[in-house]
Design goal:
Layout: H1 13-33, H2 43-63, H3 66-70, H4 73-90, E1 92-94, E2 97-104, E3 107-109, H5 111-129, H6 137-156, H7 160-176, H8 181-198, H9 204-214, H10 221-237, H11 248-251, H12 263-297, H13 301-325, H14 343-361
Antiparallel strand pairs: 1-2, 2-3
Helix pairs in contact: 1-2, 1-12, 2-14, 4-5, 4-6, 5-6, 5-7, 5-13, 5-14, 6-7, 7-13, 10-12, 12-13, 12-14, 13-14
Length: 369
């Protein structure tokens, strides 16, 4: 019988190193983003605190066998639904959206942020338990109901970007589980009809983001101002950038929310394509490769689904964040993983890395502990 500590020899130090490098890079760029803005000057220090807490949480989660989590999947799912429902009743409203639970006067949590990882864990075991029914269309409908309940609660907040992320999680994981192509075709039709029905229910600012993306010539100048500034930032950065804390669009305040939604534009302006964009995207690509490696090594279907779902979250958020910065996708509330400012997001991502490490460290069935 192997000792419990023996599983640590499978700990992926390269994955953790890449995550720490990307997070550190993000903290440096957040510091540049808030320079000259007294109201935000404490954000870099706060992000460091979140990062340290995230590292500790990641190591603790890695030490716990992920099968303890999957065996409690129904309790986790119920807890997520309760938290999202509580947000609808007594959540904190910021910027016309009710997405947060006020824990203390200076601390809020966003259940949908944590939920994107918890739903992966619960849905992974849900799929593993129903693997023999994967070719039945009735099972596909059941999985849609399973994922549809939290999506509906998030959509009502409203949070379109996070709702889309949950749909992507469902799609990638059920595709990996072996869903027949004929089911996807039927669901594509259902999805288009649902999108048409749901559009009138979107908040006004969400509709404006979509119409601004589709028809920028007719959009209000205030709606496209920041998108234009983001493009200017990226274009003016060139290959080598203007230098750390030397960006004109960022340092002079033309680019808004540059520490969150538009941090990629700020990075490219100051650090350029070589030391900015390519560094961030290369590190993220490496992280994705290591996570997919963990999925390939897992003999447990639930472990494979968990790692693949987490990789899908990181890939989709990176794609959307970069895409909206270069005007290839509409603006959403999804931020650049490990780089953008945000406590709930950063801790959630470190939790996810801890789960991946837990799966990887227990890649052999006899190693339980």
């Amino acid at each position: 019988m192997l000792s419990k500590t023996s599983v640590w020899r499978h700990f992926d130090i390269w994955l953790m190193a890449a995550v720490l490098l990307l997070t550190s890079y993000g903290i440096l760029m957040i510091r540049s983003a808030v320079t000259g803005a007294p109201a935000f000057e404490g954000l870099p220090r706060q992000q460091i605190i979140w990062a340290v807490a995230g590292i500790i949480i990641s190591l603790i989660v890695a030490a716990i066998d992920y099968r303890y989590l999957t065996s409690s999947h129904w309790y986790i799912y119920l807890g997520l639904i309760v938290a999202l429902a509580f947000v609808m009743v007594a959540g904190q409203i910021n910027n016309d959206a009710r997405r947060w639970i006020q824990v203390t006067s200076g601390f809020q949590i966003q259940p949908s942020e944590f939920g994107r990882i918890f739903i992966i864990i619960t849905f992974a075991q849900f799929l593993a338990n129903r693997q023999k029914y994967i070719h039945q269309f009735s099972n596909t409908i059941i999985t849609l109901i399973y994922i549809g309940v939290p999506i509906l609660l998030i959509f009502i907040e409203p949070d379109l970007g996070m709702s889309m992320l949950y749909i992507v999680i469902w799609f990638v994981m059920i595709w990996l589980a072996g869903l027949p192509l004929s089911h996807f075709l039927a669901l594509a039709v259902i999805g288009m009809v649902t999108a048409v029905i749901a559009y009138p229910s979107l908040a006004d600012y969400q509709k404006e983001r979509i119409t601004t993306f589709l028809n920028p010539e007719e959009a209000n100048q205030d709606d496209i101002f920041n998108i234009d500034q983001a493009e200017i930032s990226i274009g003016s950065g060139g290959l080598w950038g203007k230098g750390y804390m030397q960006g004109t669009q960022s340092q002079l305040g033309f680019l808004r929310v540059q520490h969150t939604d538009f941090i990629f534009s700020m990075i490219t302006e100051e650090m350029g394509l070589v030391f900015g964009s390519l560094v961030v995207l290369s590190l993220m690509g490496f992280i994705l490769m290591r996570i997919l490696r963990a999925a390939a090594l897992s003999p447990d279907p639930a472990g494979k689904y968990i790692c693949t779902g987490i990789a899908a979250v990181l890939f989709f958020q990176t794609l959307v964040s970069v895409g909206m910065n270069v005007r290839l996708l509409p603006v959403t509330g999804l931020t650049l993983p490990f780089v953008s400012y945000g406590g709930s997001s950063l801790i959630t991502l470190f939790f996810a890395i801890g789960v991946v490490q837990s799966v990887l460290m227990r890649q052999r069935k006899q190693e339980f502990g």
